Amino acid sequence: MSQAPKYKRILLKLSGEALMGEDSYGINRVTIDRIVGEIKAVLDLGVQVGVVIGGGNIFRGVAPAAAGMDRATADYMGMLATVMNALALQDAMKRAGIVSRVQSALTIQQVAEPYVRGKAIRYLEENKVVIFGAGTGNPFFTTDTAAALRGMEMGADIVLKATKVDGVYTDDPKKNPDAVRYQTLTFDEAIGRNLKVMDATAFALCRDQNMNLSVFSIFKAGALKRVVLGEDEGTLVHC
Q1: What sequence ranges are listed for the domain Aspartate/glutamate/uridylate kinase (predicted)?
Q2: Which one of 13, 36, 63, 225 has the fewest CB atoms closer than 10 angstroms to its CB?
């Protein structure tokens, strides 16, 4: 089988919850090391990788813990959580021998570079992984939207959304054993069927800018590599 990747540059969206593993909170060391191993397998193919990471394993602006808080304040706290995750991911990559850079949409110069588009593209061209923290830097926008935005700014070939489920299904596969995975979908079909692939803003951004999206499970061994090779893995959402 050909090992030539279908995509040259990808933007990987990782949720904060993905870092928890089986834990109920925080960062699971074994899990983050395994995720880094999946990313390394793609880097070894010569693919350039940008990562947008969420913060739900630490704090989320719309979570019950934020109830009663000013929404903007809660969202800024969530952005700081994503920076913590970005630093943890960078540290795990360093242990795996991967060179990476953290860029933050919020200015925290002691711990991360400020986001500069030209610099980030140069890092990708040098085959360094760029980890984007702090979402878009604005409250009321999710890290899904940040992934769509950074994907376009970086000139990525595709946005890959890593989830707990191996694609988009006709129904919740945990509740309905007869649920069927979509191999491909158009954005209009996903919106029309009210499939919760990403939040509506991110969805619209991808559709309007002709940015394809693939949804797959980061917990399925080798799934990221199979998506990058163009194999039947996950669900491809296209225009």
Answers
A1: 8-217
A2: 63
Beta-carbon neighbour count of residue 215 at 10 Å? 27
Convert the pLDDT of each residue in 207-236 to its tens digit: 999 999 999 999 999 999 999 999 999 999
Residue 13 is assigned to a ligand binding site: yes
Domain architecture of the chain: domains with CATH: 9-234 (3.40.1160.10)
Q: Is 145 annotated as a binding residue?
A: no
91 belongs to an annotated ligand binding site? no
Q: Tell me how far apart the alpha carbons of residues 142 and 140 are, in angstroms, rounded to a whole number.
A: 7
CA dihedral of 134, 140, 144, 149, whole degrees rounded to 10: -70
- Ligand-binding annotation for 188, yes or no, is no
- Span 104-140, pLDDT tens digits: 999 999 999 999 999 999 999 999 999 999 999 999 9
Please tell me whether 172 is known to bind a ligand.
Answer: yes
Confirm whether residue 50 is marked as ligand binding.
no
| Residue 40 marked ligand-binding | no
User: Residue 204: which residues within 8 A CB-CB, separation 6 or more?
Assistant: none
Sheet strands (E) in the chain? 9-14, 48-53, 100-104, 113-114, 129-133, 158-163, 184-186, 213-217, 235-238
Residue 61 is labelled as binding a ligand:
no
Helix (H) or strand (E) holding 46: none
- Annotated binding residue at 56? yes
